[in-house]
Amino acid sequence: MREPFLERRDASKAGLPLRTRKLDQAAHAAWLYYIAGNTQEEIAAKLNVSRQAAQRLVALAVSEKLIKFRLDHPLRECIALAESLRDKFELSLCEVVPSDAGSGDTFNGIGVCAATHLETYLVAKTPTILAFSTGRTLRSMVEQIPSMHQPQHKIVSIVGNMSQYGRAGRYEVVMHLSDRVGSQVYPVPTPVVATSIEERELLQTQRSFITVKNLVEQAKATFVGISQIGWNAPLHQDGFINDDEVTQLIELGAVGEIAGWAYDRQGVLIQGATNSRVAGVPLEQTAQRLIIGIAGGVKKVESILAALHGKLITGLITDEVVAQAILDKI
User: Fold this and answer.
1) pLDDT tens for residues 140-158?
2) How many other CB atoms are there within 10 angstroms of residue 189's CB atom?
3) Fewest CB atoms less than 10 Å from the CB: which of 118, 159, 217, 297?
4) Domain boundaries, given as residue ranges, for the chain
């Protein structure tokens, strides 16, 4: 019997209607069921839905005639890549979106996919704590979230959003998300990197910082951006570290950063340098919670791979070019 396949659609466009996103989810469920041989319980766990919802998604794929004698859906290769990454790095969640070969801009596609996962937490009636770093891709994710009124949730930052001299970053996330969904918001009341170790220690004794740190430790999910370390990389370009500091990080072997914390090719946090002055919530070296890295683009392949090696993240949403490049390197 030949393997079934799914109908081709473009899931990388911004502003996808709810029905299209539902069909994409049904496509993923059908792939897991018919091709990967997952049970409905396993599908439910991987898609973060109930067993009944997983069953309905597979049924939807059948009723919408997505099931044929071959797989013809843009997510075919993406789903296979995601499952390979999930298995290789023992991820709790992994999604791979189609890359736009024409523009090279993956923010929208990744943002739409990440928003779908974020929305499952936001629409819940049960009070939930969600934590976030900052950055371009996370802001793209927030832009896809519809307006709603969910005051029972707490939206918490894990990183400050200003330079040492008070300049605000352009890609703040938690305040923007709170405006859209009406949830309680807790920003980190510090710069990304303090001017000295003494200043960092003083800032982190504030009651407001301790409150935020305690909330982050209770977060059901944490969404983080992943960036490379280099000249004009986001941390440098946005003014959070200066020329001498980025040079020092490069010399120490840093290849990536999450929420201001720099790490090497093995995903081990750099000792000293700006890491001794990062004034945000500490980044767990071996993540025990659901920490979802949201990043794409060829410039970030090395930094994403390193974060996976070091288990700084336990979930990943990226694009197919990055996913394939990572698998080629291991």
Assistant:
1) 999 989 999 999 999 999 9
2) 17
3) 217
4) 18-73, 81-329
Which residue from 79, 91, 34, 26 is spatially nearest to 53, judged by alpha carbons?
A: 26
Question: What is the reported pTM?
Answer: 0.78
Q: What whole-number distance in Å separates Cα of residue 306 and Cα of residue 263?
A: 8
User: Distance (Å, rounded) from C-alpha 182 to C-alpha 37?
Assistant: 41
Cα(268)–Cα(51) distance, integer angstroms: 37
Beta strands in 259-300 (DSSP E): 261-263, 291-294
Q: Which of 63, 71, 80, 79 is nearest to 23 (CA)?
A: 63
- Provide the pairing of β-strand 129-132 with 154-157: parallel
Fold type of domain 18-73: Arc Repressor Mutant, subunit A (1.10.10)
How do residues 236-254 score in pLDDT, each as one tens digit? 988 889 999 999 999 999 9
Pairing of strands 291-294, 221-225: parallel
Distance of CA 203 to the CA centre of its chain: 27
Residue 240 DSSP label: S
Q: Does domain 81-329 have CATH number 3.20.20.140?
A: no
Find, among 89, 129, 94, 142, the residue nearest to 292 by Cα.
94
In the chain, helix, strand, coil percent, each to 5?
Answer: 45, 15, 45
Which residue from 186, 199, 146, 193 is spatially nearest to 169, judged by alpha carbons?
Answer: 193
